[in-house]
Amino acid sequence: MQKTRARLPVLLIIITVIASCVLRFFQLFGKISFNGNTDSYILYLLIFLCFVFAVIYSVFKKDLAETFDISNGKKSIFLSSALLSLSFFYDFIHQGYNCYSYVSSVFYIDYVYLIPMGVSGVFALISCFYFLTLALTERNENYDFKNFTFLHFAPVVWAFSKLIGIMSQIIDVKNNVELFSEFILICITLCFLFSMISAVDKKNAGATRAFVFFSLMLTAMAFIVALPRIVLIMMDFSTFSEVTFSSVTYLMSGVFSLTILCDINKRTKLK
After folding, report:
1. CA pair distance 208, 263, nearest whole angstrom
2. What is the pLDDT of residues 129-174, one digit of tens each?
3. Predicted model pTM
């Protein structure tokens, strides 16, 4: 009975995420014609429903297995970590290009805009090495990413610098849905990363409900924000200027958090 009650919120989250992705795709493609900001309010309602369903799901999760079990390396976590590392390197290249392009195209440099972009690029590179160590840990028991204390905070600084950059651009949450959705995603990413750092510090401790919640919400928001953007990039929709290539990193972060959550649930059932 408990399993059935836990699966229902997951099913509702999947439905809500699919509906949100479809809505975002048509918003970005310019095919939505609701009156006023109705479409924006619908999207925010769907995100709120994801939040509610994730809370309900995490309530039913108890006596969970350890967050990271490096004694038995998981191929899924290895692959998702490696791909996330690659996407961070890709983000580093992209942010470096953005900095160069911005500096070379303006007469007056706005450092409020430039500095977060530069910091984001630097810590994207450091985060690349961090998730590479995590991937190597999953393939080699003698190599433990938990010992790299400083690197745990690299993705946090990356996410925080992205957050500062977005905050400097947000004007109206009703009209600027794209940036505000990304703002929500980055906030959730920060919470997930802090929960992850806490889990690393508490060795052999079971995963917390907070970690489960933020893992689920990060997965949902990553798909809602990044997937429609990536589809438009692949379609070469050049008139859409809001697309940033950090979307690849966002999506892979969601895939990474999902593989961690699936691994925890699998090991919990075997306890």
Report:
1. 14
2. 888 888 877 766 555 566 665 566 677 777 777 777 777 666 555 6
3. 0.76
Cβ count within 10 A of residue 141 = 11
For residue 111, give the nearest of 165, 150, 177 by alpha carbon.
165
Res. 266: pLDDT tops 70:
yes
The mean per-residue pLDDT over the stretch 55-79 comes to 73
Say if CB 124 and CB 250 are below 8 A apart: no
Q: Are 99 and 113 in contact (CB under 8 A)?
A: no
* Non-local CB neighbours of 197 within 8 Å, separated by 6+ positions: 152, 153, 156
Give φ, ψ of 66 to 5 degrees. Answer: -60, 145
- As to burial, measured by CB atoms within 10 angstroms (0-12 exposed, 13-18 middle, 19+ buried), residue 203 is exposed
Q: For tokens 């939505």, what's the residue?
A: 32
Q: Is 246 helix (H, G, I), strand (E, B) or coil?
A: coil
Dist. CA 196–CA 67, nearest whole Å:
8
- Could you give the CA distance from residue 3 to residue 8 in angstroms, rounded to a whole number? 9
Instruction: Mark out the alpha helices in 140-208 (DSSP H runs).
Output: 154-167, 177-201
Question: How far apart are the two ends of the chain, measured CA to CA in Å?
Answer: 18
Q: How far, in Å, CA of 89 to CA of 85, rounded?
A: 6
| CA distance linking residue 95 with residue 115, whole number of Å | 11
205, 199 contact by CB (below 8 A): yes
